[in-house]
Structure formats: C-alpha cells, structure tokens
Design goal:
The structure is a single chain. 20% of the residues lie in helices and 36% in strands. A 5-stranded mixed beta sheet has the order 3-2-1-4-5, with helices on one face. The protein starts with 16 loop residues before the first strand and ends with a strand. Keywords: Endonuclease, Hydrolase, Nuclease, Nucleotidyltransferase, RNA-directed DNA polymerase, Transferase.
Length: 139
C-alpha cells in the first residue's frame, strides 16, 4: 500500500522507476516509486495547484501537464534510468505530444531524450455510476 508504513523509502538504482500522474480541475499530482518484491514502494510525492490559465486547459492538456511536471520534479531520479509512466488518460499519446500547440512541450521531449528507456501504461480505472444500484464500469 502506498500509505502504509514505511511510507517512503530511498531509491534502488538497479530497478525501474514508476511515475504515477493525475490531474484534476484545480491541481496536478505525481508519485514516483518502485516495485520491490512485487509491492509498490513510494520514493517521493509531488503536487501543485493550477493557475487560472491552466484551469482552462482541456483534460488532455492537464494530464500532459501533470506528466511534464512529474518528469521535471523527479528529473534527478529518472535521468539515465528506465521509467514507466502511468496515466489514466488513454487519449494521451506521448508520441503525438508535439502536435499540441497550446503547451510548451520541449522540456518533455528533452527529459524523454535524456532517459534511457521510456514506456507508457494506462491505469485501468473504474467509474461508479449511481442509479438504483451501484454498477462498476471499466473504461
């Protein structure tokens, strides 16, 4: 569990890092961790609020902003390391990120080029719909 003791541990430079990013209407956040004995271990947390202009970004742009924020914040951990970035926004494709003109993405590309090997995994999320009974839907 990400909230059970010990809450944070130092990195093991011999195993890949995992970055989990998410965005909401008013803030972005990220967690960097690793899997040790198939259990997630947190190394560091990062979050910040969005300014008034960023609050007007589309969902895709906010999710991409969260990834850029995480890569900048955790740069000292990921340079030269294998990383896996988790996001819950399946429309976000880092290969097509350059086509988004509203965000300045040159820092994202610079970090991607500096890292040894990047990959992307989409979280499987559930949405809870309230009706007469609660149904779990996967998307």
């Amino acid at each position: 569990m990400l909230t059970s003791s010990p809450v944070m541990q130092p990195p093991d430079w011999s195993i890949p890092f995992e970055i989990m990013c998410d965005a909401s209407d008013g803030a972005i956040g990220a967690v960097i961790g690793q899997r040790k004995d198939k259990k997630p271990v947190v190394i560091s947390y990062a979050s910040r609020t969005l300014n008034s202009a960023q609050k007007n970004y589309t969902t895709t742009e906010k999710e991409l902003l969260a990834i850029v924020f995480a890569l900048e914040k955790f740069r000292s951990y990921i340079l030269g390391s294998q990383i896996v970035v988790f996001t819950d926004h399946s429309a976000l494709n880092l290969g097509d990120a350059g086509t988004l003109r509203k965000l300045q993405l040159n820092k994202l590309e610079e970090v991607r080029n500096d890292a040894y090997e990047n990959s992307r995994i989409y979280k499987e999320c559930t949405k809870v719909f309230h009706d007469k009974s609660i149904l779990r839907k996967f998307f």
